[in-house]
Amino acid sequence: MDWSHALRLTASEEILSLAGLVLLLAAAWCGDKASRAISIVAVAVLVGAMALVAPALCGGAMGPGTEVFYGQFRADAFASFAKLLIYGSAALTLVIAPAFFERVRAMRAEFPVLVLLAALGTGMMVSATDFLTLYIGLEMNSLASYVLAAFLRSDDRSAEAGLKYFVLGALASGILLFGISLTYGFTGTTQFDGISAAMSGGLSLGMIVGIVFVLAGIGFKIAAVPFHMWTPDVYEGAPTPVTLFFATAPKVGAMAMLMRVALVAFAGQAGAWQQIVIFVAVASIVIGALGAIGQQNIKRLLAYSSINNVGFILIGLAVATPQGAAAMLTYMAIYVVMTVASFVVVLLLKDAEGNPVEGFADIAGLSRTRPWLAAGMAVVMFSLAGIPPLFGFWGKFVVFQAAVAAGFVPLAAIGIAASVIGAFYYLKVVKVMYFDEPASRVAGTSDFAHRAILVAAGLILSPLGYLLTKWLGGLSATAAAALFPIT
């Protein structure tokens, strides 16, 4: 193996690893007073990692030349696309987190280090072409995430969120590991290409059970029905910047990991897993929408919204075509922007003492007391609902278009019909802000970084976002092509 080539292709992982270790030592030596400086350095490292992976996407890297470490790691255009979203989400988390934690006197120097290590593990997941590499990356992300969920040690909700996430996450990891063991036992390899070759001759009962367990384990990580039970409690209890991180970087990583497993390792037997994915997609869309209707906490509503959006993304996977994969990537990019904007709005909902307000009753009549904030939330809600001309509509459109093109017209029809259910609870938020009597609870000052991010995200989600469709579609198609090599 050419080690210089391998080290060049894994440069982003190397810089994140070294930076994580150095910043961990700095946190131990300098203490919490250096937390803001460590956060700034961590953001710079993440931006540098984005710069390192971007050329692979722009150049359409794919094929054997992108594989290193004896086929266990692939730095292709697909991995680059996912890593840009992951590292960007992690960097935005670190930009908005200090103001939140300093207000509750809980900012610690370890926070940016944990985010950095979680991003490293998530990046390894999307580049993994071997189940062993995949599992190492998954556990690196998970272990850091368990600590992040319980980061507010003085908050009982945060401690509860961390415990629930740890217990259910450990269960999901065990299910995934059991599926990997079965797959290895019946195919004789843990490498995706080898598994695909072994399955091309037909499926045994053991292989089918292995596929089911692998998909079930990954289903927990993407918070898809019926593995979604942890999501509302963890999203509500975890600190809001951590919830933002959970809803973006690890979710994108897990979804990209699922795409590579399904479309590469299990590519020869798509019929064996397509029915599972179709069921999970429809169930996630419907249950995510129905579960959100009765919520009175905004963070819990966004948790069910996340489950709902996972269902729409999985429609692209169910069709198992390059167009479907490209649609998934386009949707995920738009979803990250919508999610960042939604949780920034939640961070801006504070009372006069700076305490967060998260209930529906607290935002009643917000349009009359904080009109610009109400307008920002309205844009986010309409975009999440997929209502044109906002950019969120485009994500749903390309997914349904891919389904129709592949002949999955009933699946697309169900998805479109279920979108109407989802629109109800998004419009409910707008109704409360614009038509109810003012509660005058939201009165806190806003942080500049939060306002800047919300304005930038709002411009992308506005009709101006359609100027990006050709560019985003081209990048998504380039990345998706790496999963379907021409042989």
From TrEMBL:
The chain crosses the membrane at residues 15-31, 38-57, 77-97, 109-128, 165-187, 207-230, 272-294, 301-320, 326-349, 370-391, 397-427, 448-468. It is found in: Cell membrane; Endomembrane system; Membrane. It is an enzyme of class 7 (translocase). Signal peptide: none annotated. Keywords: Cell membrane, Membrane, NAD, Quinone, Translocase, Transmembrane, Transmembrane helix, Transport, Ubiquinone. It is a multi-pass membrane protein. Residues 128-422 form the NADH:quinone oxidoreductase/Mrp antiporter transmembrane domain. Its main location: membrane. It holds the Pfam family Proton_antipo_M. It comes from the Bacteria. Its EC number is 7.1.1.-. It catalyses: a quinone + NADH + 5 H(+)(in) = a quinol + NAD(+) + 4 H(+)(out). NDH-1 is composed of 14 different subunits. Subunits NuoA, H, J, K, L, M, N constitute the membrane sector of the complex. NDH-1 shuttles electrons from NADH, via FMN and iron-sulfur (Fe-S) centers, to quinones in the respiratory chain. The immediate electron acceptor for the enzyme in this species is believed to be ubiquinone. Couples the redox reaction to proton translocation (for every two electrons transferred, four hydrogen ions are translocated across the cytoplasmic membrane), and thus conserves the redox energy in a proton gradient. Belongs to the complex I subunit 2 family. This is NADH-quinone oxidoreductase subunit N. The lineage of its organism: Bacteria, Pseudomonadati, Pseudomonadota, Alphaproteobacteria, Sphingomonadales. The gene is nuoN.
